[in-house]
Amino acid sequence: MLQKIHKLYCSYEKEEKWLNGMAAKGMMLKQYNVGTYFFEKDIPGKYIYRIELLENLPSHPESKSYIEFMEDTGVEYICSYMRWVYFRKKSSEGPFDLYSDLDSKIKHYNKVLQLFLIVFFINLMAMISNLVMGIQAMVNRNIYVNLGFAAISFIVACLIGRIIWVYKKKVKKLKKEKQLVE
Q: Which residue among 18, 122, 133, 138 is the one 20 to 30 A from 36 at the CA level?
């Protein structure tokens, strides 16, 4: 029987850590859908989980080929949500890292950063649009719903901006590490 847990993450790293903590308790991820995780009981610590943001949707031929490649290396594809994919590997087979070198880590962080930048700008446009409509409604003595939506969009933009800032710092740190190695 599957156990359902509701949880939202803005950091795939924290989500990955939580999934591995659940696996250590014997709860293995079977499915994910918008903040809802479905777990199945199994042997504690049996799997190590990793999450990756693909270049394209999982149904895209390049993504399918990549997922098949991962499966050929002993990694199990669990599920996906939009471009995010969830993998696991038996912990008895040793460490499981998707990014073994600095270049692949930088590339991945840049993909995540790009995704959040797109969401940030879409949210920013919604905020500006609602602000303009809200000001027009004030002038015409109408309802103030759009100002409320503008305020919500502003708060969301601030939260996404913080996430962007964190990933930019990570990319900068990895690039410095890379320069030291070279």
A: 122
End-to-end CA distance of the chain: 51
The tokens describing 148, both together, are 């409320």
Six token digits for residue 68: 């098949």
Read off the pLDDT of residues 31-82 as tens digits, 9 standing for 90 and up. Answer: 999 899 999 999 999 999 999 999 999 999 999 999 999 999 999 999 999 9
| Nearest alpha-carbon partner for 52 in 84, 10, 15, 18 | 84
For 145-177, the pLDDT digits (tens) are: 777 788 888 888 888 899 899 989 989 988 888
Helices 145-181 and 102-139 sit at what angle, rounded to 10 degrees?
A: 160
Q: What angle do CA 32, 119, 65 make, to 5 degrees?
A: 50
CA pseudo-torsion sign 13, 15, 19, 24: positive
| E runs forming strands in 42-158 | 47-53, 76-81, 84-90
What is the rounded distance in angstroms from the CA atom of residue 145 to the CA atom of residue 95?
52
